[in-house]
UniProtKB/TrEMBL annotation:
Keyword annotations: Apoplast, Copper, Cytoplasm, Lignin degradation, Metal-binding, Oxidoreductase, Repeat, Secreted
Cofactor: binding comment: Binds 4 Cu cations per monomer.
CC annotations in GO: apoplast
Molecular-function GO term, any one: hydroquinone:oxygen oxidoreductase activity
UniProt keyword annotation of Nucleotidyltransferase present: no
Protein name: Laccase
Source organism: Rhododendron griersonianum
InterPro entries: Cu-oxidase-like_N, Cu-oxidase_2nd, Cu-oxidase_fam, Cupredoxin, CuRO_1_LCC, CuRO_2_LCC, eRF1_Pelota-like_N, Laccase
Predominant location: secreted
């Protein structure tokens, strides 16, 4: 028995850009949240164990934001292990530093350390989620992100009476890290979960659960927006509500054309917004969820989690509420036919922008693989260790994060040779494939894309080891799912069937078993520090906003005293010279202020510093000495403390 160990979250890229203009620093007042990672005892299925939580909550706290907001989350790691927190589906335009993907954009936050993460919402609107991105900690460390429309604008559907996060998860009686450790030791099949959960509760069909089953109280005649999140570890989940049809209106924080559905299929990592009309006779009704498991011979959690829709009012509720009927556990058709019916809304306010002329075409095979074990001692097929790969490369986590290596020019951390096409062409979806094809290469390779390139990736599932669905997720982008099909992708025929009118815009997609999925996006999400590094030239003008202490005189009791007042002021520095410090991690810009203002003279000479390898701190230095601190945005940082390196104490604070 074996299992697609790493089928989830395989896509990791490093973006490359060419140019952009303008360098702006804004000052905002930002909403700030505190996330304390800590162990908390929880009882499920008649036994108690300590789980990792945020602020003691499972599922964790919901972040409520509006489209376009920026918020800061201060993450304190009071747990025993390294951790990162990832904002799944948040694009973080030009700001990958807070993405929270371990060893991709940051080193993990060590126990006892803190990392302030700035979360920049841009075009997302709907439901997203956050989760831990280290080992299996996301099993319990996760929560919803609800992105409301901008203040003053509304939904593209009648405003629901209430909105309810429905988080689908999994519960193990064992410690989840123990499950992972065992998996690593044996190289085989992880213990399947003991229960599925809805909002942290297994529900009535499990022992010791009934009194805590999640209940949604509804008023007859009203409409409710269910914000579904699949926070499970690896499986697509079927979800339905007894006697109630759902109307899907969004997925992955993008609106869809209303889609009536008797059940929903939701990939791990995906979100679906669905309207539920409370239009049935007063009573209790079950909502229920169970996994879709497509790989034959692979163990799966075959239990069913439930929650209750309970109508308010006076009535006598009969014995047991009705259960909805869910598709059969291996009903591939039920899974793909639901997903295949999703369409972008494509309204005036929510238009579609599908790249039509593709500059970069990529074909990635997605496979389950096997690695040899000494004496065939592992528990994968024939004593091997189960692995996974994209274009036959099994990702090896580097020792420091790729983003830092990129900015600090540290070689040997990753290679830029991720293949654009499968290294070996074979009949990917054939029923029987030679064993030697199962062996992947291990590597840490990135595919570098040009800024503004229009990219199509065909994700081709293979039938190696076990044909199964492959959930794939992209960071920093949503993509249009322009096509999918069974069998091998045909580059001449299949594109003729693409939907280039209203394909859904998603950040997560499950490549169907023995099939392919084509996605498109425009590579427009570079990093502003790279911009600073490459863009500014002598003669340019840099706009900076600073807070400056200004002395003012005040009369008090006849005596003169001096008071400091903090004023915000804008400078425009005409760049005369630039250099980098010897590590290449700080860019110094020198020049004269050219903007008339009350506190700084025109022509006053300034030095600005930009930290190139971490969330940026911009400082002004006068005559070689730090005078006061410039803050680009809110100062954020921390988190990455490899090589025994501590955060550089800011020279400005040293002086205080
Ligand atoms: Cu993500």
């Amino acid at each position: 028995m074996w299992f697609p160990v790493m089928k989830l979250f395989n896509l990791q890229f490093l973006w490359f850009l060419v140019l952009l203009n303008g360098l702006f620093f804004h000052c905002h007042s930002l909403a700030r949240h505190k996330f304390v990672v800590k162990e908390t005892p929880y009882t499920r299925l008649c036994s108690t164990k300590k789980i990792l939580t945020i602020n003691g909550k499972f599922p964790g706290p919901t972040l409520y934001v509006h489209k376009g907001d920026t918020v800061i989350v201060d993450v304190y790691n009071k747990g025993k292990e390294n951790i990162t927190i990832h904002w799944h589906g948040v694009k973080l335009p030009k700001y990958p530093w807070a993405d929270g993907t371990e060893y991709i954009t940051q080193c993990p936050i060590k126990p006892g350390a803190k990392f302030s993460q700035k979360i920049i919402l841009s075009r997302e609107e709907g439901t997203l989620w956050w989760h831990a991105h280290s080992d299996w900690s996301r099993a319990t460390v996760h929560g919803a992100i609800i992105v409301h429309p901008k203040k003053g604008s509304g939904y593209p559907f009648p405003k629901p009476h209430a909105e309810v996060p429905i988080i689908l998860g999994e519960w193990w009686k064992k410690d989840v890290e123990e499950v992972l450790n065992m998996l690593r030791r044996t190289g085989g099949d992880p213990n399947v979960s003991d229960a599925l959960t809805i909002n942290g509760q297994p529900g009535d069909l499990y022992p010791c659960s009934k009194s805590d089953t999640f209940k949604l109280m509804v008023d007859h005649g009203k409409t409710y927006l269910l914000r579904l999140i699949n926070a499970g570890m690896s499986d697509i989940i079927f979800f339905a509500v007894a006697k109630h049809q759902l109307t899907v209106v969004g997925s992955d924080a993008s609106y869809t054309k209303p889609l009536k559905a008797n059940y929903i299929a939701i990939s791990p990592g995906q979100t679906i917004d669905a309207l539920l009309q409370a239009s049935q006779p007063l009573g209790h009704y079950y909502m229920a969820a169970g996994v879709y498991s497509s790989a034959s011979g692979v163990a799966y959690d075959n239990t069913t989690t439930t929650a209750i829709i309970q109508y308010k009012g006076n009535y006598s509720s009969s014995s047991s509420p009705p259960l909805p009927s869910l598709p059969y556990y291996n009903d591939t058709n039920a899974s793909v036919s639901f997903t295949g019916r999703l369409r972008s809304l494509g309204s005036e306010e929510h238009p579609v922008h599908i790249p039509l002329n593709i500059s970069t075409k990529l074909l990635f095979t997605v496979s389950i693989n096997t690695l040899p074990c000494a004496n065939n001692s592992c528990e994968g097929p024939n004593g091997t260790r189960v692995s996974a790969s994209v274009n036959n490369i099994s990702f090896v986590s580097p020792s420091i994060d790729i983003l830092q290596a990129y900015y600090k020019h540290i070689s040997g951390v990753y290679g830029a040779n991720f293949p654009s096409y499968p290294p070996l062409v074979f009949d990917y979806t054939a029923e029987y494939l030679p064993l030697e094809l199962e062996l992947p290469q291990n590597g840490t390779e990135v595919k570098v894309l040009k800024y503004n390139s229009t990219v199509e990736i065909v994700l081709q599932g293979t039938n190696l080891v076990a044909g199964t669905d492959h959930p794939m997720h992209l960071h920093g982008y949503s993509f249009y799912v322009v096509g999918w099909g069974f069998g091998n992708f045909d580059k001449d025929k299949d594109p003729l069937g693409y939907n280039l009118v209203d394909p859904p815009l998603q950040n997560t997609i499950a490549v169907p078993k023995k099939g392919w999925t084509a996605i498109r996006f425009k590579a427009t999400n570079p990093d502003d520090l790279w911009l600073a590094y490459n863009l500014i030239a002598e003669g340019d003008t840099v706009l900076a906003v600073t807070v400056r202490k200004v002395l003012r005189e005040a009369a008090s009791g006849g005596r003169e005293s001096q008071d400091a007042e903090r004023v915000k002021l804008k400078l425009e520095i005409k760049v005369e010279a630039m250099d980098y410090d010897k590590e290449g991690s700080v860019l110094r810009i020198r020049g004269k202020n050219i903007l008339e203002n009350e506190h700084v003279k025109i022509g006053a000479f300034h030095t600005l510093e930009i930290q190139l390898h971490r969330p940026f701190v911009l400082r002004k230095i006068a005559d070689g000495e730090i005078d006061e601190q410039y803050v680009g945005d809110e100062e954020v940082g921390g988190g990455c403390e490899r090589f025994g390196e501590k955060r550089n104490p800011s020279p400005a604070s040293e002086k205080k």
